[in-house]
Every structure is written in C-alpha cells, then in structure tokens.
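ok here's RAP protein, putative:
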Amino acid sequence: MFSFKPFPNFTRRIITKTIRRTYSSCTKISVQNEEKKIKNVLLYLEKCILEEKGKNEQLLSFKTKNEQEDKVEQIRRNLLITSYLLKNMQANEQKWLSIFELVSTLCPLDEQTLKKKSIKLKQKNDEKNKEQYASVNHVTEFQNNKAINKISKEYNLLNLYSCYVFSFKTSIDRLLNYLPMYSIHNYILILKHCANFLNFFFKINNRKNFTKLNYIYIYSYNHNYMNNSIILKNKNEIVVGGKDKLDITYYYEEIYNLKYHEIFVYKIKLISKILNTIKYDLMERDIFCQLAIFFYTKTKNGIIIEKNILDLLYHYVEQLHKNSFIKHVDVQLFFKIINIMYYSKIVSTNVLQHIIGTLKNINLSFCQFCKKEIFQNYLKLLTLVNLNEHNFYIYNFCKYYILNIITRMSKHHSNIYNFFFVSCIIGMFDFSLIALYIKFLRQNKKINLKESLTHKIYYTLLGWDIMLSGFIKNVNKIREEATGFVKINFYTKHIYHTCSNSPSYDLLSLSHEINHLKNIYKGQIYIQKYERKNNRKTKKVSTNYYLNQYSIYQILKKHFNDNVTYEHITDQKILLDIFLKIRKKNYCKNVAVEFNGRTHYNLLVQKEIGNNNVHYTMIENYNTKYKKWLISNLPFSAIYIPYYEWNNFPQAQREKYLMQVLHFEK
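and the structure:
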C-alpha cells in the first residue's frame, strides 16, 4: 500500500480557503451577536421610558430601520439611538444599574475591518459601490431619517467607534450620579463588569508592541509615606493633578494610542470611585472573597491602584487579629492574595506570615487543587519571602514537583524553565537538580520557544556560569566533598553552601557544559531578534520620551555628547538603560546607569498589633537584585538611581544630583 501525500500547493490552497471560511463565519457570528446585544439594550431602554413616561415625554421618536442597510450600519444606527436615549432619558438608580449591566455586555466591533470586508463584497457585485466605500472612515447618512442624522452630527458620533465610546461613557456617568445609593452587592456586580472590560481591552490591544506598558500605577496623594508618592508634571513643568485627583501617569502615554482607551479611562475612574466608597468594616467574608477575586483580575492585567490594595490588605490583617478568617482556611483566597501582592509589588508582612504558617500546617493534597496550581502559586510566593527554615518547605514542594515532571517527561516545559529561573533570582543554586536540567535542555534545545522563555533559560545559565566561576575559585578541596546547594546573598556576595551525601560533581566539567548551552541559547536570542526585525507585521516600537531614564539620557548627552548610548545591550545580552564612556587623558572608564522605577521594588507594609502604626519599607525585588548581581560581574561600573529619590528633585537639581553621583565614578 502506498501512502497518499497531497501536493503542497494543493494542500496550502485548501488550508487557506478553510481558514478564510472559518474567519468569515466567526466575523458574521460576532456581528450577529453584537446586533442582538444592542437590540436588547434598546428594548430595555424603551421599557424604562414607558414605565416612567411622565419624565420622558420630550424624547424624540425614531422611524423603523431601513431593511437595505447592511449589518454594520444597522448596528451604528441602533447605537446612535441608544446614545441619544442614554443622554436624555430619566430613570431611577436600579434601572441605571441594569442599563449599565446591559451596556457592559457589548464587545465593540472593529469598524475598519468590517468596512474593508464590505468593500470587497460590494466591488464584486457593483463597480459603482467602489467610490461609495472607497474610504473606511466614510461617514454614512441615514436615508429618510433626519433625527438620527441630527444626533450623529450634534454628538459628533460619526462612526462606530465614537458611538461605542459615547454609550459606555454616558452609562458610567449616569451610574456615578447614584453611586452612594447602591449596596455592597451592587458594587461587586459593577466591578465584575469592569473586570470583564479590562480583559477585553488587553485582549484586543496586544501589549507586545508596548514594552513599557507592563504596569499602570495610579498614585494616591493621601499616603503617609513619602517614598512612594509622586508629583506628575507635563512637558512645561506644570503640575498635573492635585489632591484626591485620579491620574494615569504620563509614563503610559501609549495607552492613548490603544483602541477604546477612552472607555478604559472611564472604567478606571468608576473602579476607583467604588473602591473608595466601600466600607470594609461592614463587609461579610463572602463579599471580601469576591472583592479579592476582582483585585486579582485587575492587578494581573497590570492595573494597580495602590491605596485600594493597601485598604484590602489592612482589612485582611484586622480580620486575622480578630480571628475572623482563621476559622475558615480558604486556600483559594490565599492564592488570590499571593497573586495580588506578587503583581502589585505591595507585600503585607503580616498577611505573608499568616499564609506561610497556615499552609505549612495543612496538607494541600487533600484540597481540591491540582499540584500544578499549587506549584505556580508557591513559585510566586518564593519571590516574596526570604528563604529560611520556616518557609523552606515552599522551595522543597516546587523542587519535587519539577523532579516529578522531568522524570515523567511531562509537557509542562514552561514550569521547568520558570522554576530554575526563579531559583536563580532568589540566589538558590541546587546541585542535585542541575544535571537533570542540563540533560533536559540538551534534549529540547531545538524546540521553538517564546522569546520570554528563551531569555529566562539564558539568564539562568548565565547565573550558573558566573556562580560556578566564583565558586570553583573560593571553595577548597572541591573534589573531596559533594555540594548540596549554594545560596548567594546578592548584596554581600557571601556564598553559603551545604554538603551532600550524593556523589560529588566535576565542577569544571559542569561549568563547560553550562557555558556551551549558554552560548546556544544566546545564539537563539540573536536569531529571534533577527526574525522579529524582518517580520513585516511587527510594528516598530517608538521611544517613550516621557520616561525618566530618557530624561537622564538627555542630561548625560548634554555633558558627554556621543559617549552616551540609550538602551545599550551588552555582549552578555543584558539590557542597560544607559551606557556611558568617561574618557580621560590616561584611561577610559565604562559606566552603566540604571533607573530603578516602581516595578523594581516591593513595598513592604507591616502593621503593629494593638495600634494603628504602620511601617513602610521600599526594598529591591529579586529580579532587580539578580540583575545588579549579573552586572556587578561585568567589566564596568554601575550607578543605580531609585525613582523615589529622582522624583523628589526639581529639574534643575536633577542635573546637579546626577553629575555629583558620576563625579565619584571618574
């Protein structure tokens, strides 16, 4: 029997047609679903108007739709009517809540994509339509309906995009008018709808092209600690925002280039208002758990409103002191709190101690959690603690989980890469695992990985390479004893190691193996970078001139001219904010200048038992410590500028401060 192998061109043609049909079908379904949702909104608005007819007598009436309109125009027409009614109708607070729920179910359609499809279809049937639909931004007037055309021009709703923005904004504004009248259950419901939009917003706006848009910190002016406050200024040094005013910092101007950023800003405003209105003292345990789920979703998307996260953690600490939450061990709640602290970089030491102590004393194997979920949460927990005998069980659980999936040849490769990377950044180098890891990398070195995973593997191997180079030089009688693990203090560079009963390792051979693999993955980084540059679909990432590191670069450029490089990549593939060459008559000194922003630090919050005294400490997180350790092993000096110091200086003093710091490096 001969196996049939179809011709490549024939196969490609079939696959292409199948994908086109599937995509076209999905687009039609999404348009139909959106049309139904908008009709539901309209029907409910009409119902509300009829129920309160006396308050809505002056509203315009609209003619029946034109059946010849295409689906997109029907949707826009209904959105225009919806916008008008939302702006002008009168209803009570419960009806506005229901209206907000219905409007929140809408998933804004991409008008340009739909119009382009419409152009192609029209061109096939009638050449005349080519001129009519030549531009995707073409504004259509509705025939025989002057009222709708008037609304379109009066409210400047000239396309689908503006209609969606207006509908969302108006429904939110109406809701804000009645906000104090709603119950805590209503607030939770509103927050859930806001969380759904945040997921939608970040899904349609692929953030890979916005490298600096990782976390959006919204600062409060009511904090009683100075290190974490900031005064925002625009280009002209005019203060933006004031007391109790909500601002999204200008560091994230890329937001205003994203689709539906207007709705995003309105949603953030609504979220902030609700979270500031909530009375935690009156909150039941179930409501608190639902609120924690919302915070988890919000912080995971990168939206961090620091004051509200602190309020949540304060309340949790108070309940722990009252033993309200100790009676019910909710592991799922623990995991949500761990994630909130992990993503927000705000860590309550009181909460952390309680979670670590409780998890140590319960058997998670009896809980309804898969080991993968426990592992992923424990891995995040490792980045929040200083390893000691009380919490070392967290590392051991992760270690044996990884041993299990490596020996079973599991497909969860990313968990393996993440574990070894996290082990490195916390300074834990386990010799009982490294041989297995090297073998695993050899077997899977040809697999195409995401760029982030390739970088994690490379930086893991780089850390091992540097550690072994120093370790081999400093440990006596290396071949006479077997090393269990090495723990490095990145600040003091003190190396602590334990002995093991297992066979000893040839550390020189191990070092050569790691160095070889390191060079392989370094080459993969080069290849991925080259492919990214040559990919036409990849958008060019523009420089954000508002970033603090760019302002530092401009100051240095004024003094050192062409001897300054912005975002320099070293031979070891480490990205530096600024690389500076200080040239003197007899020597040339290389200096790295790193700006440590908010995401480089964890804010440790500790509340004293028995009083309301709260202590705030800003410490570098493990990623920052690890990068500083890597840089310290490179042949140049490094200067680190903390954001909380830099932001306290006016522009004139910043330059003076920077030159004083550099003076000690000359």
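+1. The longest strand covers residues 575-583.
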